[in-house]
């Protein structure tokens, strides 16, 4: 009988701790939400560099960012159909369902951020690893020296 009471109390304690921890800040749900947001920002960093290589500039405004970058979130599924991952990777991951974007010089840099869907609305951001330099000036200087 004592063993049964002990096991019952132990089980209830474990259930209580599990439930109470899952609702507190810093819970596994918060960590998962932040990780999802970081994963999206990592993908966005790669997509922005791909866009830069193709266009030699970053988008100039928030509106242009959504218009030009959203197509990069479209992938093909196993059946060869286009699937838009924007909803899954942006709208379902950030509290205001968007990534905020700004740039002071679209030829060199950008800054993008969003608030993760955790209890603190943690800000997660991305930017290019290094600012791009204007290579046209370097090429022109080299040509004038020769």
Automatic annotation (TrEMBL):
Tree of life domain: Bacteria
- What is the protein name for this chain? Type II secretion system protein GspG C-terminal domain-containing protein
Organism, by scientific name, is candidate division TA06 bacterium 34_109
């Amino acid at each position: 009988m004592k063993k049964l009471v002990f096991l019952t109390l132990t089980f209830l304690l474990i259930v209580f701790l599990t439930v109470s921890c899952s609702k507190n800040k810093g819970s596994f749900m918060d960590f998962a939400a932040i990780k999802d947001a970081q994963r999206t920002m990592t993908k966005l960093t790669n997509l922005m560099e791909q866009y830069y290589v193709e266009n030699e500039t970053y988008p100039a405004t928030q509106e242009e960012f959504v218009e030009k970058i959203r197509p990069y979130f479209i992938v093909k599924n196993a059946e060869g159909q286009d699937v838009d991952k924007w909803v899954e990777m942006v709208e379902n991951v950030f509290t205001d369902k968007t990534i905020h974007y700004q740039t002071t010089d679209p030829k060199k840099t950008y800054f993008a951020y969003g608030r993760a869907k955790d209890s603190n609305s943690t800000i997660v951001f991305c930017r290019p690893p290094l600012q791009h330099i204007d290579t046209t000036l370097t090429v022109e200087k080299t040509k004038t020296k020769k």
